[in-house]
Amino acid sequence: MTATTADSTSRAARILSRPATINGLTVPNRIAMAPMTRQFSPGGIPGADVASYYSRRAAAGVGLIVTEGTYVGHDSAGQSDRIPRFHGEEQLAGWAKVAADVHAAGGTIVPQLWHIGMVREQGQPPYADAPAVGPSGLRLDGTEGTGKAMTQRDVDEVIGAFAEAAAAAERIGFDGVELHGAHGYLIDQFLWAGTNRRTDVYGGDPVARAKFAEEIVAAVRETVSPSFPVIFRYSQWKQEAYSAKLAETPEELEAILAPLAAAGVDAFHASTRRYWVPEFDGSDLNLAGWTKKLTGKPVITVGSVGLDGDFIKAFQGEGSQVKGIDDLLDRLETEEVDLIAVGRALLQDPQWAAKVLGDRFEELKPYDVAALQSLS
Ligand SMILES: Cc1cc2nc3c(=O)[nH]c(=O)nc-3n(C[C@H](O)[C@H](O)[C@H](O)COP(=O)(O)O)c2cc1C
Fold first, then answer.
1. Residue 88: which region, alpha, beta or left (left: phi > 0; alpha: psi -120 to 50)?
2. What is the pLDDT, as a whole number, of residue 8?
3. Are 14 and 324 in contact (CB under 8 A)?
């Protein structure tokens, strides 16, 4: 890691230990766990090992856990029977235990609600016969594949599935929800012109492309209590299209985000690969910083926190070395961003938050892809 002085490490504890507010929720500090798919939930049911995986990190000081993406109750939502579902009696009972254990450990937790859209390969469980669906039946590379363009009925069903999942989250004891609008999955397929060629109300300019997301937010907002936090995660980049952009300018970004904020988003989670990269020319603000400036909402930043290489390296089988976070603390101190989400560093080391909050930076570990193999 880069050299860290005693002064700057105590600064870390001071800055990160402050509580944060998202609507009715008080997060005990500024450290969030980024959502990370693990595929350790056979039958879509998160078991005792998943509960202890999350609660171990809460006990070590993670203030807000955003769970791995979990499928909403729509036949085409997912493609793996080992990824947890957020519908069904046993699945929700598993999730209720996860939430209770995280609370007992002193943390807060929101599920990340997910529909993968055209990323789905047909013929996979849990609903092998369901087609892949998306705004225009296009895959992220622009090809048609075997999916179908969603009808208004499909749109209504998916919106209903997100609202039902959010209601379930509140009912079984979660502290809020995060809607997965990032990385080229269904909601993002509507947001992005590359996959949305619709000529109805859901396609066209950025405001029209945001309408599907806006309707999901509004339906969720209507279903849950007014104080129940709704977080919206989005990204410029897409799976298999890392240089793709939703918005080329702050004005385009505002056109997309303003209707979502108005529909009831309480905080945005702006997913980037490296938090230190400025988003638009002429300003040092990163994507989260721009999001806060444009919407006035609290923001979570993410991307290589505590590590020197981004997560694409991880998918290519490469590890990353430890990197200092002084520049990130600056962004928190100036209130450019409100929370930091930590992905691989926390996957590697359940004690990451305890070490950072306890000024034990010298104990941080590099990220090794072997960490993906277990739920330690
Ligand atoms: C193994 C793995 C699984 C991931 N799964 C998800 C996911 O389910 N939902 C999501 O929004 N992002 C997912 N991501 C992206 C992370 O949330 C995060 O944005 C990314 O890893 C960058 O943070 P990091 O550099 O701290 O790892 C995943 C990343 C990894 C490494």
1. left
2. 46
3. no
Q: Is 309 in the pocket of ligand 1 (CB under 6 A)?
A: no
Instruction: Give the C-alpha separation, 276 to 264, whole Å.
Output: 28
Where residue 231 falls among pLDDT bands split at 50, 70, 90? very high
Residues paired with 269 in a beta bridge: 233, 300
Q: Could you read off the pLDDT of 286-325 as tens digits, one per residue?
A: 999 999 999 999 999 999 999 988 888 777 888 889 999 9
**Any ligand 1 atom below 6 A from CB of 304:** yes
CB hemisphere CA count around 350 (13 angstroms): 13
* Closest-CA residue to 319 (of 310, 327, 328): 310
> Any idea which of 126-130, 199-203, 225-229 has the lowest mean pLDDT?
126-130
Provide the pLDDT for residue 2: 43
Residue 94: strand, helix, or coil = helix
Based on the residue annotation, tell me whether 185 is a catalytic residue of this protein: yes
Neighbours of 49 (CB within 10 A): 13
Please identify which of the residues 54, 185, 234, 275 carries the catalytic annotation: 185
Residues sharing a CB contact under 8 Å with residue 362, sequence separation 6 or more, in sequence order: 1
First to last CA, the chain: 23
How far is the centre of ligand 1, averaged over its atoms, from the C-alpha of 296 (Å)? 25
